Amino acid sequence: MKVINIALLGHKDHGKSTLIGSLLMRTGAATKVRMQEAETYSKKLHKRFEPAFILDSFSEERENEMTIDTTRAEIKHKDLAFALIDVPGHEELIKNMISGASYGEIALLLVSAKKGEGIKDQTKRHLFIARMLGINKLIVAVNKMDLAGYSKETFDNIKKGLMTFIEKIGFSKENVNFVPISAYKGENLVKKSSNMKWYKGNALLEALYANAKSEEEKKEGPLRIIVQGALDAENKLVAGKIVSGSLKTGEKLVFEPIGEEAIAKDITVKGKKVKNAEVGENVALALSNKINSELRGTVISSINDKPRITDSLKSLIFVTGKIGNKLMIKFNGIDIGCKWIKISNVLNTVTGEKEKSTKPRFLEAVNAEILISRKIPVENYDVTRELGRFILYSGGAFCGIGIVNAI
Amino acid sequence: MIEQDLKALEEKSIYIIREAKLKFKNIAALWSMGKDSTTMLALARKAFLGKIPFPVIHIDNGIDFPETYKFRQDLAKKWNFKVIVGYSEIKPDLVGSACCGKNKPETLKKIMKEYGFDALIVSIRRDEHGIRAKERYMSPRDEQFRWNYKNQPAELWDDYSSKMEVKGHVRVHPLLDWNEIDVWNYIKQEHIPVNPLYFSRNGYRYRSLGCTHCTIPLKSNAKNVDDIIKELQTTKVEERSGRSMDKEREYVMARLRSLGYM
Fold first, then answer.
1. Residues A331 and A191 in one domain
2. Residue among A34, A281, A335 minimizing CB distance to B11
3. Are residues A335 and A398 in the same domain?
4. Stated pTM of the model
5. Per residue in A33-47, pLDDT tens?
6. Is A281 within the bounds of a domain?
7. Disulfide check for A299: which of A64, A377, B6, B91 has CB 3.0–4.6 Å away?
């Protein structure tokens, strides 16, 4: 069964973990033991049954009623499985939120309709991050409708309040759906709720399904293989993952940035020799000649269509920590030092507006250019994701993620 | 139980196993002779063209099942890989989770030190337990084997944690995405040998294998791999319900894992 990764988004306490727990229960995906265990713990804490405890397994998460780290659980609907990726909503846990969201193909944003909750900064910031990570499809679940009198007006106001921002950061209208739900009570999750007859759209599961089925056009890019390293001592047998294009035996290849060439004599995929290999496959290539330089982190392409080699990364960076001394990036499994970073402006992740300031702030983004200590093969993130993204460290501490938007 | 696309799972696991081998200097894998770690070895053979290019460690407390010992001997010979056996002593005053949380990790610590391993492949899966579901694909442990689960490193895309944040070693989890039924579907597809204890005898079979002291068989008539897959498609019984340590306290697994339990 094909699995679609769904990244949950939203402010703390707007019901991300509760929604997943509730979906697991209502689709029969939660095992009896997990349910009983969540129930026992709810009682122990003198609370009503808390579906979030099916996901939140650390005692600290349960006692403080907050998700600390990301996890995922699957449900199925018709011929698809959805891996629901839970993430923490708390600002200080943004590192864990990004770790989970980076695997998402569709975003599922929770906004609480309860009075005093509604659209928060973190609601918008999570949307910004999802969009930056390249997620194009979005479902907004307006939650806690039971605590808002199932009011159509409240639902419409949230929709109106968010739609401008959603379009501003680059989602296109036709890829966005709004669904009014009660995660706790299970309304409009699997079945339509009789309490919200004014809502004419799909229940959440069906909305996810329709969204997942609307395939985006896949473009056939040029061959790009990210090399993990050599499998032999001679540097003639190379392991890597095809992230774009396809490959056939006998093809003449070039390794960048080192510029060495070789012919793929044999291709092995999953232990079997094949004539062709496709995008997504992990290959082992027996080469016509040995490669004289370090292979890890190099990129294989056809000699006629090579990626650009550069040491300058013009990027959008989401700031997760202090950008200070000893800057380095992690890029396709290798660590590379940075010579300098020039920030042209801050991009406010809550308003979507550029600011004059060039001083990076926690949880905001910056447009910047980074000069790294050596040249690497790079492409814009929207061309080949794997060659256009990096993780930024300062003094060994995680301080940002970047996507390359101009080379 | 949700049956996932095996091809996608397989590609990701092969990628992670290769990353482990090519990123770290000196790796090993834990092998309990159970279905998961044996499946991982089958994946490693695919990743490295038929060879398993790292030693596998069995922490042996002397009370594993006789079938398990025989399986160890037979498969190591058939697939030609190196087994490091670490003998761990059973202390009569340590039972259940205290035993698993202390004896085995102590032995493993000695082995890790003796051989200088910097990464260890462990075949845990998210669907086994809520705590395991919180793991990263690559998860650092400090020198005392502690898991700092309250502050795990960022892990994005396919760029897994490097060693720069830790002094101890990194646990690598290539099977994290797999469900129990996926493992059995893969065993069927690839004809992977399994420990005979998984198959029903006199109306009982083992669903999850530990040592003789902590594992009890569950009621089942599944006599072969096909039967097991059929059973899992409909069962409501938890995989680890025959493992006593999981039940002592709700979050005992967190304690075990932070102590270094495998």
1. no
2. A281
3. yes
4. 0.92
5. 788 888 888 888 888
6. yes
7. A377
Together in a domain, A43 and A175: yes
Total of domains in chain A: 3
B136 shares contact with chain A (CB less than 8 Å): yes
Give residue limits of the domains in chain B. 6-178+248-259, 195-244
**Beta strands, E only, B26-176:** 27-30, 56-60, 83-87, 119-121, 138-141, 169-172
Strand partners, B219: B204
Res A64: pLDDT: 84
Per CB-CB distance under 8 Å, the chain A contacts of B46 are: 270-271
> What are A361-405's pLDDT values in tens digits?
999 999 999 999 999 999 999 999 999 999 999 998 899 999 999
Do residues A275 and A369 share a domain? no
- Which residues 189-208 on chain A approach chain B with CB closer than 8 angstroms? none
Q: Are A318 and A294 in a shared domain?
A: no
Query: Does some domain include residue A219?
Result: no
| CA B198/CA B35 separation, integer angstroms | 9
Cβ(B131)–Cβ(B258) under 8 Å?
no
- Strands A137-143 and A176-180 turn out to be parallel
CB–CB of B157 and A281 under 8 A? no
Enter the CATH code of domain B6-178+248-259.
Answer: 3.40.50.620
Chain-chain contact of B179 with A96 (C-beta, under 8 angstroms): no
Looking at the complex, does the CB of residue A229 fall below 8 Å from at least one CB of chain B? yes
In chain A, whose CA is at the least distance from the CA of B51? A271
Residues of B in contact with A57 (CB under 8 A): 129-131, 133-134, 251, 253-254
Query: Which of A192, A213, A234 represents a domain boundary (last residue)?
Result: A213
ipTM value = 0.92
B253 CA: distance to closest CA in chain A (Å):
9
Residues 6+ apart with CB under 8 A from A60: A68, B150
